[in-house]
Amino acid sequence: MIFWYSGCGNSRFVAEQLAAGLNQELIFIPEAERSGSEIEINGDEMVGFVFPIYAWAAPKLVTDFIAKIRFAKRPEYLFAAVTCGDETGYTYRTFSRFLQKQGVILDAFFSFKMPETYINLPGFKLDTPQSEKSKIDAVKEQLPDVITSISKRDRGNFDELKGGAPFLKSYMLKPLFYGLLISDKPFNVNDSCNGCGRCARECPLQNINMVEGRPVWNGNCTNCMSCYHHCPKNAINFGKQTCGKGQYYFNRPQATANEKRE
Ligand SMILES: Cc1cc2nc3c(=O)[nH]c(=O)nc-3n(C[C@H](O)[C@H](O)[C@H](O)COP(=O)(O)O)c2cc1C
Ligand code: SF4
Ligand code: SF4
């Protein structure tokens, strides 16, 4: 059983590949949350969590979801596979401690470097099309080894993307990030919006309503940026921070991605 969350498709790709290679069922965390049904783990199965790194940590919506799972018995093997644009910081450490508090052990932790999706601050930008491609190619090469590792029930921290100053990032900047930056208030839409509604359909949290042909954000946002990146008119911006920075989502047609970043 693989529980997954993704905003822009990177982690969905990894989750789907792992599920296919390991013959596991996929459960999309926001959908499971919306269904409201209690999840119980009975100990005889493999459990995986796949998610993007937000502020050098597991996204809050992922840990909030896991906190509600009833672990009747410890899973036979529990792994996490995360995607990040650059660095994971101390995600392994904070996530394994969080799981310990839920009464379970994180047996293995894998990380994948994927194209960047977060561009809401000055200096934060997307990968170039070349770097986008080389990251995805490298992940495609990495996946079979990770599938073999999980099949063999390898145990350990296999993260090679911790990066520098992980304590500062995961313990000090992360709370600031959640406290000060995560909000949908800065989102705005310009006149090129054609009312297609794709932004609303692509929001994993169903946080967008279409009102009189324009998106309206409802305050339950994790800043995954899926609405921004999927807009076919590039009509959405986050304040002015995203203006002219281009768009990306997994499997976005490359020609369009190039055009947008030239
Ligand atoms: C809100 C937010 C915070 C992010 N924080 C980090 C981070 O701390 N370190 C990092 O390397 N990438 C960070 N990223 C980039 C994503 O982790 C990365 O692009 C990931 O593969 C996106 O996965 P998704 O397509 O499944 O949403 C962040 C992205 C978002 C949207
Ligand atoms: S995806 Fe873009 S064009 Fe379509 S409704 Fe949303 S903002 Fe408008
Ligand atoms: S409103 Fe946009 S940024 Fe916020 S959760 Fe939905 S898709 Fe992600």
Topology:
Layout (H helix, E strand, L loop, with lengths): L1 E3 L5 H13 L3 E3 H7 L4 E2 L4 E7 L7 H8 L2 E2 L5 E8 L6 H11 L6 E6 L15 H23 L4 E2 L8 H16 L5 E3 L8 H4 L6 E4 L2 E4 L8 H5 L5 E3 L15 H8 L1
Parallel strand pairs: 1-2, 1-4, 3-5, 4-6, 6-7, 7-8
Antiparallel strand pairs: 9-12, 10-11
Helix pairs in contact: 1-5
This protein binds flavin mononucleotide (FMN) and iron/sulfur cluster (2 copies).
Q: What does this entry look like structurally?
A:
The chain is of the alpha/beta class. It has two domains: 2-164, Rossmann fold, CATH 3.40.50; 184-249, 2-Layer Sandwich (Alpha-Beta Plaits). 36% of the residues lie in helices and 18% in strands. The chain has helices spanning 10-22, 29-35, 60-67, 91-101, 129-151, 166-181, 198-201, 226-230, 254-261, and strands at residues 2-4, 26-28, 40-41, 46-52, 70-71, 77-84, 108-113, 156-157, 187-189, 208-211, 214-217, 236-238. The strands form four sheets. It has a six-stranded parallel β-sheet. A two-stranded parallel ribbon has the order 3-5. Strands 9-12 form a two-stranded antiparallel ribbon. Strand 1, helix 1 and strand 2 form a beta-alpha-beta unit. The longest helix is centred in the middle third of the chain and has 23 residues, at 129-151. It is globular, with a radius of gyration of 18 Å. Mean pLDDT is 95; it is low at 255-262. One iron/sulfur cluster (SF4) binds next to helix 8.
